[in-house]
């Protein structure tokens, strides 16, 4: 077997496996800082501050592509966040949130024009109390 054939025999299935693992959320966590949310933790304004800070993140900061229905591209330009649950432990603030956004589907109703569809996913946010670093993980319920 030639080297290139042997390489293709081994590498292509591995690339496919890594792609599938990433799509289901294995090892693909995003990090950012939620300093305002951390500062407001334990106050009546936490929920509003958290929602505003999440909705104000840069495009692509949340791993929404892992929560799409059809695997299409994500439009997070007009997302909406709903805080579902919070918990406190020694080192982290845990927040479960629902995120409403748009998924782009190829080939909409008008020929080949893309179609924006409403999408929703649940994300677990872990905020490190020492650094304000947040880890986002899509939760499949």
Structure overview:
The chain has 141 residues and is α+β, with helices and mostly antiparallel strands. The chain has a single domain, classed as Nuclear Transport Factor 2, Chain: A (Roll). 26% of the residues lie in helices and 38% in strands. Strands 1-5-4-3-2 form a five-stranded antiparallel sheet. Mean pLDDT is 82; it is low at 3-12 and 14-26.
Main sheet? 5 strands, antiparallel
Summed up, the helix count is 3
Q: What is the name of the CATH topology?
A: Nuclear Transport Factor 2, Chain: A
Instruction: Tell me the name of the CATH class.
Output: Alpha Beta
CATH architecture: Roll
What's the number of extended β-strand segments? 5
Strand coverage percent: 35-45%
Overall spatial form:
elongated
Quick structural summary:
By secondary structure, the chain is α+β, with helices and mostly antiparallel strands.
Please outline the helices and strands:
Layout: H1 3-23, E1 30-33, H2 35-40, H3 46-55, E2 74-88, E3 92-105, E4 115-128, E5 133-139
Antiparallel strand pairs: 1-5, 2-3, 3-4, 4-5
What keywords describe this structure?
disordered N terminus, alpha+beta, Nuclear Transport Factor 2, Chain: A, 141 residues
């Amino acid at each position: 077997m030639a080297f290139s054939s042997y390489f293709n025999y081994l590498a292509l299935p591995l690339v496919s496996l890594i792609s599938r693992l990433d799509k289901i959320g294995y090892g693909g966590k995003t990090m950012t800082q939620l300093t305002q949310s951390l500062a407001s933790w334990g106050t009546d304004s936490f929920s509003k501050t958290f929602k505003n800070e999440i909705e104000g993140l840069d495009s692509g900061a949340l791993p929404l592509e892992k929560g799409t229905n059809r695997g299409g591209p994500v439009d997070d330009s007009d997302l909406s966040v709903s805080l579902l649950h919070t918990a406190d432990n020694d080192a982290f603030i845990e927040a479960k949130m629902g995120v409403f956004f748009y998924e782009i589907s190829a080939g909409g109703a008008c020929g080949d024009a893309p179609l924006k569809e409403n999408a929703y996913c649940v994300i677990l946010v872990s905020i490190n109390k020492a650094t304000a670093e947040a880890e986002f993980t899509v939760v499949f319920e």
